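Thread title: Can someone regenerate the structure for this chain?

I was given the following input by a collaborator and told the matching structure tokens would be attached. They weren't. Posting the sequence so someone can regenerate them.
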Amino acid sequence: MTTNRVMTLTCIQLRYPHSQHGVRSFLQKLFHPTKISFANQEITSTNHEALNMNYINETAYPIVSPLPVTQGPIRLFILRHAERLDCYYSSQWVRQAFDKDDKFCRFSPILPETIPSRTSICDFVADPPLTLQGLKDAYRTGIILREKNIDIHYCYSSPSLRCIQTATKLLEGLHSNHKLKIRIEPGLFEYTTWYANDETTDSLEMPRFLTKKELLENQYSIDKNYHEQMSISEISRSETESDYYERSHRVTTAILKQHENDLITQVQQGQTSTHDHLHVLFIAHAPTLETCTRKLCGGKFRSDRLSSISRHIDFLSMTVIEKKDNNCDRWMFRRSSIFKENT
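Best answer:
Regenerated them for you:
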């Protein structure tokens, strides 16, 4: 019997350039062939609320022993979007950034050099773009993935502009922007109840996202033929934290199952090797790293702590889960890298 190896979780912030060495170190450990572990991962180095932490015995949820490999691993990369503009100016930036004719006026080096056109500039309030630094960081994240020979086969994004821009720049850095189109998945949008107007009313002001037509007009490389798992109209405007967990899990499971079935069919038809891998990328929001992986990896929903967990997930933070065998339903964390370094 193979002895399970203990893998200590780290807290690497996937943000460039402040963590240049850390990013490369994280990815090197993540995909170095001698670093694969199927352990009951013991957490020994963090005081934060780790993504797959069991607070009763202070270990990660147990992972089943690997079954005979019948196909290469399917990996899901989940990345929070890069730095958003309203972190600096709240919603007031919209008033300053457009003149009376709605022409964009870049009043600060923090702002991006250009901004997408849309039906109403007021829509930027609930659906802001990235900062200039955020765009650069997303691009450099793609470069780092390319340096580590990490290819992405499918890219899914929340309909939020900041997520689509992150996906676009990352794929540019990865040199995949001409061959890989972004699939816009409304089901990956964040917890809708956070969009309540105030604490005394149940009415919500959901963002008006850019349509596929608008995205294409703004030169975003999206998959216009992708059939979404869930439409915006299907997402409850007053969902609970548990509802949000369930929505995230349902959408994630549906997407992964579809790709897994396609891969199995390709193997059976001899179109691909049993050792080929499949990499799927989600680019969404802070809580996505928790809600899309929690149940898949054997954990229970932590609805009462979702807000607290999300506050520790920085821009461009990443987590990776994988499944080594299509005969097993359990996914495992490859590594976790979702918290800020202590400063």
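The two ends are 43 Å apart (CA to CA).
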